[in-house]
Write a sequence for this structure.
């Protein structure tokens, strides 16, 4: 398991009963988590005194019960700074378990010793984009949601990266990748976090179980002659790290050698000293 254990502004205080108790900076949130299947004693008083709680609805979805949180506030990870806040579907605009991948991205780019171009697909609010930019890469950031791309640009400005070499693209990721192939554009690294289900700006439907294999085969053609790495993340229930790794072996390893590593992503739990599984990831690393 790749555990994101270097946080100062985020802490998974406790989890259980289908929920997690978290500290985001100076605010505490309670959010649903389907992986937290066990019981917990809930001795931490912040379970009942949290600043905001996301409550599931019996008819689907849910809503935030907010007591004392602003619309947005800042949290930092190392020298990166992010804007977070309660949003739809229990989200906050940041996945803290991805910090282990941000460290990987920065290490790979900084260690390359050459200019590196990165394509970040399904790029959300831009944490991986910021990590790559901080390491000196040139980035193309693509997401179908205009609001998320705007949020990513705000995060870049927070980090004094508004003039960094980045293209901000609002588009369906598959369609954009196809056009890049036809244009002959190539990238040294690919980052992607495809959703289980989604719609593009023109109503394009994405289902990961139907589209991931073909999508990975297509985007493999966007790798340069001197590729550095491919990073694939997933939060789809039932799609294990080994399954993603198998696809990466079949596509990226066969195409360019190197090695594939796949693991669960995890967050340390303060109350127990254990780690909560929080997604899956696969890293293909070239031999170069």
């Amino acid at each position: 398991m790749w555990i994101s254990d270097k946080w100062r502004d985020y802490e998974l205080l406790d989890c259980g009963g289908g929920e997690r108790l978290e500290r985001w900076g100076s605010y505490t949130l309670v959010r649903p988590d389907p992986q937290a299947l066990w019981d917990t004693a809930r001795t931490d008083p912040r379970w009942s005194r949290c600043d905001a709680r996301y409550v599931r609805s019996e008819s689907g979805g849910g809503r935030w019960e907010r007591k004392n949180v602003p619309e947005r506030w800042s949290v930092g990870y190392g020298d990166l700074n992010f804007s977070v806040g309660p949003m739809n579907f229990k989200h906050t605009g940041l996945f803290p378990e991805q910090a282990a991948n941000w460290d990987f991205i920065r290490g790979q780019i900084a260690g390359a010793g050459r200019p590196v171009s990165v394509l970040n697909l399904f790029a959300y609010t831009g944490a991986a984009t910021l990590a790559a930019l901080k390491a000196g890469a040139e980035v193309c950031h693509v997401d179908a949601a205009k609001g998320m791309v705007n949020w990513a640009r705000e995060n870049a400005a927070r980090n004094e990266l508004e003039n960094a070499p980045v293209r901000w693209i609002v588009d369906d990721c598959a369609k954009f990748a196809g056009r890049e192939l036809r244009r002959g554009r190539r990238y040294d690294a690919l980052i992607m976090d495809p959703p289980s289900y989604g719609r593009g700006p023109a109503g394009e439907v994405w289902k990961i179980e139907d589209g991931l294999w073909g999508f990975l085969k297509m985007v493999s053609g966007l790798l340069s002659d001197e590729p550095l790495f491919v990073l694939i993340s997933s939060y789809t229930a039932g799609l294990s790290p080994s399954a993603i790794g198998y696809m990466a072996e079949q596509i990226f390893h066969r195409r360019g050698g190197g090695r594939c590593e796949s693991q669960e992503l995890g967050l340390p739990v303060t109350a127990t000293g254990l780690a909560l599984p929080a997604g899956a990831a696969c890293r293909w690393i070239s031999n170069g």
